[in-house]
């Protein structure tokens, strides 16, 4: 398989052969498929010495739908190269890439199975003391160091070309910014939400603001964004945070990644009460505060153009990111509730009445934040508006 000239999907048996042929593991090897995602196969291989690796293979179609939804295999290269690029700035927060294969759309990386998927741990009521700080730092460093403020313009434009990802961007454009706002066949929601969903479809103010967010997503090539940064794309334990799955990566607006993180912590905020809710509120605030502080420090240290010292310029830039962050957070709240790909935070609530109530609140929060994002000046203000959701 080291000389493969055409794509073929791996099985447990051929994954073992691939590992041996490419000297990735030696000895007696066992393999199991562990992936539960929408787009890929993921295999965990372990040898008789206890060494282990992960082999991830992109499928030529969306696993969640089937072969009727073809997808480019180039996304495997995008993912591997993004992990490497982001790893230059935050090596502690991404898995090590051990091997890649463009023909077979394979990325081999370190095994993180000793960690927990952050979404699963949070749903189980766990709290990770370092997660929010780590993610705030991850966001600030990956986004700043791939932006015009840190790169020579020639290098920035070279990277824009290298990370062009039109097929997966189109999925984002449709599933986040278009389909939830009309009666699209990809939408998926419970009948008990229909009146609320149809109200969104008729809300011209909301539609106008989402159209602006979509235009910004399409046109603002600010930094190399992860593109799908939710709590299901983060592995964690008490001390460790690892961000995975950047196959949707491209050059886009800085606030997009930050907003997706804020939204996915907000799902947890909406489902918790009392002290547990306050912990999540603190996490939401910490993500933004660490991002803000770290990004400002990097800007001050590394940006050397004339405008770096113009009074108020950095403040205006951060304020623009914050407005975008809120808008993209609101869009994520809505699409994960009524669009194609839901979140377990809401869907796993067994009590039907409570589940519908939390989904109604999520839609209400998303709509309000999108329409009022320019009037909310701080993360504390965002949290205060969440408190008003009933």
Please provide a written account of the structure:
With 390 residues, this protein is α+β, with helices and mostly antiparallel strands. The chain has 2 domains: 12-110, Phosphorylase Kinase, domain 1 (2-Layer Sandwich); 116-387, Aminoglycoside phosphotransferase (APH), C-terminal lobe (Aminoglycoside 3'-phosphotransferase, Chain: A, domain 2), CATH 3.90.1200.10. 51% of the residues lie in helices and 13% in strands. The chain is built from 14 helices and 12 strands. The protein has helices at residues 12-21, 74-87, 118-123, 131-145, 153-162, 166-177, 194-201, 204-219, 254-271, 274-302, 313-338, 344-347, 352-372, 379-387; strands spanning 29-33, 40-47, 52-58, 61-62, 66-70, 97-101, 106-110, 116-117, 223-225, 234-236, 241-243, 250-252. It has a 5-stranded antiparallel sheet, sandwiched between helices. Strands 8-10-11 form a 3-stranded antiparallel sheet. Strand 10 (234-236) and strand 11 (241-243) form a beta hairpin. Helix 4 runs antiparallel to helix 9 (254-271) and helix 9 runs antiparallel to helix 10 (274-302). The chain is globular. The chain starts with 11 loop residues before the first helix and ends with a helix. The model has no long low-confidence stretch (mean pLDDT 96).
């Amino acid at each position: 398989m080291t000389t493969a000239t055409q794509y073929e999907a791996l099985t447990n048996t051929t994954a073992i052969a691939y590992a041996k042929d490419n000297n990735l593991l030696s000895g007696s090897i066992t393999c199991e498929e562990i992936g539960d995602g929408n787009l890929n196969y993921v295999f965990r291989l372990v040898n008789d010495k206890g060494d282990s690796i992960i082999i991830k293979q992109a499928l030529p179609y969306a696993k969640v739908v089937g072969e009727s939804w073809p997808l480019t295999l180039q996304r495997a290269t995008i993912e591997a190269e993004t992990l490497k690029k982001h790893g230059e700035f935050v090596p502690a927060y991404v898995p090590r890439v051990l091997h890649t294969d463009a023909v077979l759309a394979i990325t081999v990386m370190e095994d993180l199975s000793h960690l927990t998927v952050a979404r699963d741990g949070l749903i189980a009521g766990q709290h990770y003391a370092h997660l929010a700080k780590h993610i705030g730092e991850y966001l600030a460093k990956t986004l700043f160091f791939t932006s015009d403020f840190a790169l020579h313009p020639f290098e920035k434009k070279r990277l824009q070309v290298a990370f062009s990802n039109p097929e997966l961007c189109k999925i984002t454009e449709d599933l986040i910014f278009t389909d939830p706002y009309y009666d699209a066949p990809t939408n998926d929601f419970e009948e008990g939400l229909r009146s609320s969903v149809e109200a969104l479809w008729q809300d011209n103010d909301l539609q106008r603001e989402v159209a602006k967010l979509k235009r910004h997503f399409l046109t603002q090539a600010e930094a190399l964004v992860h593109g799908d940064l939710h709590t299901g794309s983060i592995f964690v334990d008490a001390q460790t945070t690892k961000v995975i799955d950047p196959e949707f990566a491209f050059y886009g607006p800085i606030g997009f990644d930050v907003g997706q993180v804020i939204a996915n912590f907000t799902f947890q905020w909406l489902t918790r009460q009392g002290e547990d809710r306050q912990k999540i509120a603190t996490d939401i605030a910490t993500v933004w505060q660490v991002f803000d502080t770290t990004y400002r420090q990097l800007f001050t240290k590394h940006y050397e153009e004339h405008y770096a010292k113009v009074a108020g310029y950095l403040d205006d830039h951060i304020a623009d990111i914050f407005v975008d962050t809120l808008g993209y957070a609101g869009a994520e709240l809505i699409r994960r509730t009524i669009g194609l790909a839901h979140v377990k935070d809401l869907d796993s609530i067994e009590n039907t009445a409570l589940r519908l109530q939390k989904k109604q609140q999520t839609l209400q929060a998303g709509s309000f934040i999108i329409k009022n994002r320019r009037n909310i000046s701080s993360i504390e203000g965002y949290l205060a508006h969440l408190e008003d959701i009933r």
